[in-house]
Design brief:
- The complex is a heterodimer.
- Chain A is an alpha+beta fold.
- Chain A has four domains: about 190 residues, Threonyl-trna Synthetase, Chain A, domain 2 (Threonyl-tRNA Synthetase, Chain A, domain 2); about 110 residues, BirA Bifunctional Protein, domain 2 (2-Layer Sandwich), CATH 3.30.930.10; about 55 residues; about 90 residues, no CATH class.
- In chain A, about 40% of the residues lie in helices and about 15% in strands.
- In chain A, strands 1, 2, 3, 7 and 8 form a five-stranded antiparallel beta sheet that branches.
- In chain A, strand 7 and strand 8 form a beta hairpin.
- Chain B is α/β, with parallel strands linked by helices.
- Chain B is built from four helices and five strands; from the N terminus they run E-H-E-H-E-H-E-E-H.
- A five-stranded mixed beta sheet of chain B has the order 2-1-3-4-5, sandwiched between helices.
- Classes of the chains: A alpha+beta, B alpha/beta.
- Chains A and B meet through loops of A and loops of B.
- The complex binds zinc ion (2 copies).
- The site of one zinc ion has 6 residues of chain A, from strand 16.
């Protein structure tokens, strides 16, 4: 999908490699035109691991064509043409689109550069309209590029897909030709080797070859892994290790149900807004006749919570009357909901359950720190398009813990948690881990974290000062899963 | 881990089953392959499933109260007294040795 047009600011931020790859898209277009002069080009940005160019062409380009396209690219690179920047007026650009000159090697009467004309319309008034010309190929483009075609040290076409012009399915469908480029051959070879390695180590491949887990989309559901006996053995060993480690570190184990009443998540703040889209829709225990009334009450309650949050954000004292009215109404709705019957949610996190455990018995300072641990099975309603093997799932087992402690105990507890992570990372040879501490109040020091909790608003990159000597410097290259960086690492949250 | 018999005859199979039972009593994930397939085929299959430790037993091993040990990635470590091997396995599980 093609996103919005890049702003000038985005363009300035393009890395050297992105410039090189985008320049290579121009070179690829040049080569395609040498072979098929009628080709009409749309957009050719750099992407995560290379570049693409969208093209409209009678001939359907297939991987069999790659060698001949690459051969033409080689000539263009060898010619070492300059990427020449030309500033033009909008009138001139419209004229050059009409004549088929833009995104072409020369004028093409009767074959106007229709997509370039459409791109032109997206350039705001007041922004310079520029061409970039390498040899005969002249393209409407804001850049940036490398100096010369010869700066592209190594390149390879990788795949073909299809895409709608400007990502809109009402627009014509184009062929999207993907490629990648590097400063030199060595770097490109390393990249493809890494891809091979990733394929070899793909957990989905290993998982099915070794009989570790299965995902039965038809009967169990997408994103709901079934652990087969051999995978179960791995899980069991991991759990055993963690149980021992945590036992040693003074944790106590608890066990909580997979569902909870709506009230719990309204109280914790996960509902109505924060987690609404990540949770499965509720299980309603309402009688058929009461459903409509139940829905109505819930919607009203959500609206009240929304308004209360807003009021509290503005400063409660601004409108104490309104707050009182809303709280009263909320209370009455609660009574009616209780009378009607309940709504339950599958848990997407264990925290509120653990907090109920904390609240289940009278606690004294002498009980602190209290470290609750559980392998909680959680359910998250991930978009079906985002599900990926075991990396993005709808049910997961969280090795979760919550620590209840005094402000004075915080630093020590925090460091101990960190040490435990480092121990696990060492055991599993995980070298890449960026960890982020999220504070309730956006605090950046231990002292301010003691201020009364408001809401989980601004995550901060605090922590370095609190635990000097424990923070590991994130390195990008290696991690347990080769290739993409999986940014989501959830840790225990200390309250 | 897996206990493999050379052949499917008694009392060899009972001897092998006894070893599996003993290991399982100590919570070691042991299983048996007592079929009459060729021993090389059985070993190969276990290799493919990445079985960590294989105990290969023939009638001569049985007579000597021994087992032959093969470890994934290390190959054949030779025949040793059964009691010694069991103790070694339990220790390596306890210490989480690779
Ligand atoms: Zn360009
Ligand atoms: Zn939590």
């Amino acid at each position: 999908m093609q996103a919005e047009r890049k702003t000038l600011d985005d363009r300035n931020k393009m890395t050297d490699l992105e410039r090189l790859r985008h320049s290579c898209a121009h070179v690829m277009a040049t080569a395609i035109l040498r072979l098929w002069p009628d080709a009409q080009f749309a957009a050719g940005p750099p992407v995560e691991n290379g570049f693409y160019y969208d093209v409209d062409l009678q001939h359907r380009i297939s991987p069999e064509d790659f060698a001949s396209i690459e051969a033409e690219m080689k000539k263009e690179i060898k010619a070492n043409n300059v990427f020449e920047r030309i500033v033009v007026t909008r009138e001139q650009a419209i004229k050059d689109s009409d004549s088929g000159r833009l995104g072409g090697l020369g004028e093409r009467p009767g074959n106007p550069s229709k997509f370039k004309l459409g791109n032109l319309a997206d350039i705001p008034e007041g922004e310079a309209i520029t061409y970039f010309k390498n040899g005969d190929f002249m393209d409407l483009c804001a850049g940036p590029h490398v100096m010369r075609t010869g700066n592209i040290g190594a390149y390879k076409l990788t795949s073909v897909a299809s895409a709608y012009y400007k990502g809109d399915e009402k627009n014509p469908q184009l062929q999207r030709i993907y490629g990648t480029a590097f400063k030199n051959k060595t770097e490109m070879e390393a990249y493809f080797k890494m891809l091979e390695e990733a394929k070899r180590r793909d957990h989905r491949k290993i998982g099915s070859e070794m009989g570790l887990y299965a995902i039965d989309t038809e009967y169990t559901g997408p994103g709901l892994p079934l652990w087969l006996p051999k995978g179960g053995a791995i899980l069991e060993e991991l759990e055993k290790l963690a149980k021992e480690t945590e036992f040693h570190a003074g944790y106590v184990r608890v066990k909580t149900p997979h569902i909870a009443k709506e009230k719990m998540y309204l109280t914790s703040g996960h509902l109505p807004l924060l987690y609404k889209d990540s949770m499965f829709p509720p299980i309603s225990l309402l009688e058929e006749n009461d459903r409509a009334r139940g829905e109505q009450l819930t919607r009203r309650k959500f609206a009240i919570v929304d308004e209360l949050v807003k009021l509290k954000h503005e400063g409660e004292s601004a409108n104490p009357e309104r707050v009182k009215v809303l709280e009263r109404e909320s209370f009455e709705i609660g009574l009616e909901q209780d009378a009607l019957g309940e709504r339950y949610y599958l848990k997407a996190m264990n925290c509120p359950h653990h907090h109920r455990i904390f609240a289940a018995e009278p606690r004294s300072y002498r009980d602190l720190p209290l470290r609750l641990a559980e392998y909680g099975t959680c359910y998250r309603y991930e978009q079906s398009g985002e599900l990926f093997g075991l990396m993005r799932v709808r049910s997961l087992n969280m090795n979760d813990a919550h620590i209840y402690c005094t402000p004075e105990q915080f630093a020590q507890e925090f460091n101990a948690v960190n040490e435990m992570y480092l121990k696990y990372f060492k055991i599993f040879g995980i070298e890449t881990t960026g960890r982020r501490l999220t504070c309730r109040c956006g605090a950046s020091s231990a002292a301010s974290s003691r201020s009364p909790p408001t809401r989980w608003t601004s995550p901060s990159r605090a922590g370095s000062g609190w635990c000097t000597g424990t923070r590991i410097t994130p390195t990008r290259r290696r991690c347990a899963f080769t290739g993409r960086r999986w940014a989501r690492m959830r840790g225990s949250s200390a309250s | 881990m897996r206990v493999l018999t050379i052949g499917d005859e008694e009392p060899l199979v009972s001897y092998a089953k006894g070893i599996v039972q003993e290991l399982r009593a100590h919570m070691v994930r042991a299983e048996g392959d007592y079929g009459n397939d060729k021993i090389n085929g059985k070993i190969q299959q276990a290799e493919q499933s990445k079985v960590h430790t294989m105990l290969v037993i023939g009638s001569r091993d049985m007579a000597a109260g021994a087992v032959s040990v093969r470890v994934h990635g290390k190959g054949n470590l030779g025949a040793k007294p059964k009691a010694e091997v069991v103790a070694e396995i339990l220790a390596s599980v306890r210490e989480r040795r690779a």
